[in-house]
Amino acid sequence: MKINEVAFTAYAVSDVPRALAFYRDVLGLPQGQYFNEGFIEFNIGASTFAIDGDPPPGQEPGSSSGVNFEVDDIVGAREHLLENNVTASDVYEFRTCSICFATDPDGNRFALHQRKAPGSTLG
After folding, report:
1. Nearest-angstrom CA–CA distance, 67 and 88
2. Do 20 and 51 form a contact (C-beta atoms < 8 A)?
3. SS3 of the chain: helix, strand, coil, percent, to 5
4. What's 9-54+64-115's CATH class?
5. CB of 92 closer than 8 Å to CB of 99
6. CB 6 within 8 A of CB 48
7. Could you tell me the pTM of the whole model?
8. What does the alpha-carbon distance between residue 36 and residue 34 come to, in Å, rounded to a whole number?
9. Using CA atoms in the order 68, 69, 74, 76, what is the torsion angle rounded to 10 degrees?
10. Where are the domains of the chain?
11. CB neighbour class for 90 (10 Å; exposed up to 12, middle 13-18, buried from 19)
């Protein structure tokens, strides 16, 4: 068996219109395929992120985590979240990146991530 790539990531949501507004209007993700009222995709580079209003058993709204959205300005992106009443952590600095953790309206966890230039000492 050979895995070629990650096909997509989907988060379980309780209110698809609310989640659509959050991911499209607050985070600014470009909307992709609209399969039906319960499953909507967003195109992010070569990846796809989706919201699922009818998730499979065991994937309850608010239980998803693991998606890290790459940004160019993590401080500005965090400020944008806070201005939109989104719960967001401080920005944590690491040798190769900066990261900020946040939650969507259902409580699903995601992160904003900014890679540092190789050899960068800026924090």
Report:
1. 14
2. yes
3. 15, 35, 50
4. alpha beta
5. yes
6. no
7. 0.85
8. 6
9. -140
10. 9-54+64-115
11. exposed
For residue 41, give every residue at least 6 positions away whose Cβ sits within 8 Å of its Cβ, in sequence order, or none: 8, 31, 32, 33, 34, 35, 48, 49, 50
Cβ contact 34:48 at 8 Å: no
Residues 61-115: tens digit of each pLDDT: 999 999 999 999 999 999 999 999 999 999 999 999 999 999 999 999 999 999 9
Task: Give dist(CA 75, CA 15) in Å, integer.
Answer: 29
* Token reading at 53: 């209003």
Q: What span, in angstroms and rounded, lies between the C-alpha atoms of 46 and 81?
A: 24
Cβ–Cβ contacts within 10 Å for residue 111, how many? 19
